[in-house]
TrEMBL record:
It comes from Streptomyces lanatus. The keyword Calcium does not apply. InterPro entries: N1-like, Ribonuclease/ribotoxin. Keywords: Hydrolase, Nuclease, Signal. This is Ribonuclease domain-containing protein. Residues 1-28 form the signal peptide. Transmembrane segments: none annotated. SUPFAM superfamilies: Microbial ribonucleases. Coiled coil: none annotated.
């Protein structure tokens, strides 16, 4: 049986549960509240290709892939500079990079998908 890439990744819900169990607090910021969720199985097929390339460490089809994502939109949880990196999810028929991306987080190794060039993000849920 082949498991999807990053099947052991810790999702946001696990981080919340962990904080609650050890007595920490979890505060929702407007930006964090804007992040949705998407099942791994609901991603477009090209996203699987991108996640596989990330797991392999490249090579990537675009020079911008693997660069630091600045989170200027403030939609993803606030982190220090260099925490997030972005990768292109190819769009069939597009002559450019298109709008679809995977943005990864380093510390918790989370993966976010955006189909609208950073206007919204969905945390990839590998458990559904």
């Amino acid at each position: 049986m082949r498991f999807p890439p990053r099947i052991t990744r810790i999702g946001a819900s696990a981080a919340v549960l962990s904080a609650l169990l050890i007595g920490g607090t979890v505060t929702a910021t407007p930006a964090a509240a804007a992040v949705g969720s998407i099942c791994y199985s609901d991603l477009p097929s090209q996203a699987y290709d991108t996640l596989e390339l990330i797991e392999q460490g490249g090579p990537y089809p675009y020079d911008q892939d693997g660069t630091v994502f600045q989170n200027r939109e403030g939609i993803l949880p606030s982190q220090s500079s260099g925490y997030y990196h972005e990768y292109t999810v190819k769009t069939p028929g597009s002559s450019t990079r298109g709008a679809r991306r995977i943005v990864t987080g380093e510390k918790n190794q989370e993966d976010y998908y955006t189909a609208d060039h950073y206007e919204s993000f969905d945390l990839v849920n590998y458990g559904c």
